[in-house]
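Quick one: structure tokens for this chain, please?
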Amino acid sequence: MTATSRNRTVLLAVTTVLAIVCGALLWHRLPVSTDVYAPFDVRGTIGERTAGRGLSAVVDGVTIAPVLRPSESEKTQKAVGIWVVVDGSFDADPDYGLMHVELLVGPNHYNAAALLYQPPQLQPGITEQRGWPFDVAPDVLDKVDSVVFRAWLGDGRLDTRLVIDIPLDDQRVRHTAVVEIPPPHRVGR
């Protein structure tokens, strides 16, 4: 083997190793699929209309209580922690959509209570007024100044998601012993 061919072999080996190292570094810096397909947040606050593509909402108020009573029932539901009920009006345009919600309290994400929550199929042109009950850990709730209500239609990827800030010292946030949740009702616009 001549010196020239040996130099070419070494150069080829070094180039191959560098290409593999560069490819590995690039691979580890690529965004994860949750970043690539993440929703586009539309921010708002309690009492104001927040509108994204296909969904708009107004959070009217929040009630915090240890006991919840659905209005069509005399039965009460005690929370494992404490109930945080977000009341509001929700609209879908221009298509039907299955609505999903969650409540952010500090670092924790809470889904609406499964026993009392049916994801609504919002209809275009019809406003749905309802309360969303969340069973929240009281020690986490005591450590924050505000909570965040998030709502979206469908699976939420590559679409808008409403992100509504709710300061806990706002006058529309109240504390009671029992919170009553009326059944959802629809009103035309």
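Residues 38-188 form a domain with the Immunoglobulin-like fold (CATH 2.60.40.1240).
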